[in-house]
């Protein structure tokens, strides 16, 4: 009798389980809708979208470009940038250009250099262009990767360590020329020329070499200028600020050199100093990586400055940011700094002056108005972020 009861219980068990399952099914909530995976498009830039180049020094094969809303101090996204990338943004703000290097074994193997073009709204990769494995694996100063004035070509600084410039045709999506520039470094694209696309480069003897390209991107003419600065006594920083056809370079000791890239050849104004007698006594000097910036509408030139300067302090972070009227050469403001190494100013209706502290990854945004009040502060932007660009 006991065995029969046990068998009946076993036969009833599936029925009980089925009943319990049915009840559980009634109590179960409806399934969640399928998640749609899509690419979100960023809002159109308002003139304060920042592109921050991060060298991630502790793992340099994994560089990044951080995209930040400077007005809201919010993070928008990231573009992976490979090893020691050179970066810039197209004049219309629609494309992000990255000239970078990849190795099949992360840090070794056959080197591959490419120019990548990313959509600035989605950050998606739109194109990849092979270039000679010669591009400078160097800090991404503004003059290392430069579009031509008409947006047709992209100029890439090379160093093997011999110096040259690779020319990439952005329309045809191909490399078209390598132009030797022995003893010269950096790329300064001319805004306009009736003789074709042109760029100039600073040379180690204090002169400037200007190269004119034909319609195919091949070098048509080369011309060396007169000497306009003494690199042995007072070198100049390679990235200038632009105001129309004028380029403003600052020297290690605080002189400003205006170079006009127009007409048949570059012209050079008499340099002027950022310093008065009291400043010189305190050894104030420019310092940092992206040392200067320009607010073009007001003609205001900003410079990272530190006191107690000496040989080798040209990359020191700033103690103050000095503002100068470029027309009168007069200092118009001394602004507290967050020990910034890099500066950039936006140019829109609500312009901001951004200063970047590399150790904290901190970006302070100040309103470009009397007193320069702080508008926003954002920390933790990257690991070793060095440069900023704004569109």
Automatic annotation (TrEMBL):
- What family is it from? Belongs to the aromatic amine dehydrogenase heavy chain family.
Q: Localized where?
A: Periplasm
**Origin: domain of life:** Bacteria
Q: Please state what the protein is called.
A: Amine dehydrogenase
- Originating organism: Dechloromonas hankyongensis
> Signal sequence: where?
1-24
Task: Provide the alphabetized UniProt keywords.
Answer: Electron transport, Oxidoreductase, Periplasm, Signal, Transport
UniProt main location, coarse: periplasm
Task: Tell me one Pfam family matched here.
Answer: Me-amine-dh_H
Looking at the keywords, is Phosphoprotein present? no
């Amino acid at each position: 009798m006991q065995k029969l009861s046990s068998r009946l219980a076993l036969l009833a068990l599936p029925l009980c389980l089925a009943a319990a399952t049915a009840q559980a099914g009634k109590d179960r909530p409806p399934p969640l809708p399928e998640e749609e995976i899509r690419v979100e498009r960023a809002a159109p830039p308002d003139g304060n979208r920042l592109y921050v180049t991060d060298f991630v020094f502790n793992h340099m094969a994994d560089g990044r470009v951080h995209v930040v809303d400077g007005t809201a101090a919010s993070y928008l996204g990231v573009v992976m940038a490979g090893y020691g990338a050179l970066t810039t943004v197209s004049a219309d703000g629609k494309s992000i250009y990255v000239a970078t290097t990849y190795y099949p074994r992360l840090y070794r193997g056959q080197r591959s250099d490419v120019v990548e073009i990313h959509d600035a709204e989605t950050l998606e990769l739109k194109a990849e262009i092979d270039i000679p494995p010669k591009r400078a694996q160097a800090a991404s100063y503004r003059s290392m990767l430069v579009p031509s004035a008409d947006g047709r070509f992209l100029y890439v600084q090379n160093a093997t360590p011999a110096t040259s410039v690779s020319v990439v045709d952005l329309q045809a999506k191909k490399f078209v020329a390598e132009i030797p520039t022995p003893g010269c470094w950096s790329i300064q694209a001319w805004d306009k020329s009736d003789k074709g696309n042109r760029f100039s480069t600073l040379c180690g003897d204090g002169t400037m070499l200007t190269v004119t390209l034909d319609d195919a991107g091949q070098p048509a003419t080369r011309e060396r200028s007169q000497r306009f600065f003494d690199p042995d006594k007072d070198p100049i920083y390679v990235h200038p600020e632009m105001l129309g056809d004028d380029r403003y370079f600052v020297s290690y000791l605080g002189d400003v050199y205006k170079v006009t890239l127009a007409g048949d050849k570059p012209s050079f104004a008499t340099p002027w100093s950022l310093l008065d007698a009291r400043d010189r006594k305190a050894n104030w000097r420019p310092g940092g990586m992206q040392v200067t910036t320009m607010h073009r509408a007001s003609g205001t030139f900003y410079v990272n400055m530190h006191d107690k300067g000496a040989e080798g302090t040209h990359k020191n972070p700033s103690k103050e940011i000095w503002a100068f009227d470029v027309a009168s050469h007069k200092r118009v403001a001394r602004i507290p700094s967050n020990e910034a190494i890099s500066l950039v100013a936006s140019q829109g209706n609500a312009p901001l002056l951004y200063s970047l502290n590399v150790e904290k990854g901190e970006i302070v945004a100040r309103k470009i108005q009397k007193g320069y009040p702080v508008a926003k502060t954002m920390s933790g932007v990257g690991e070793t972020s060095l440069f900023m660009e704004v569109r």
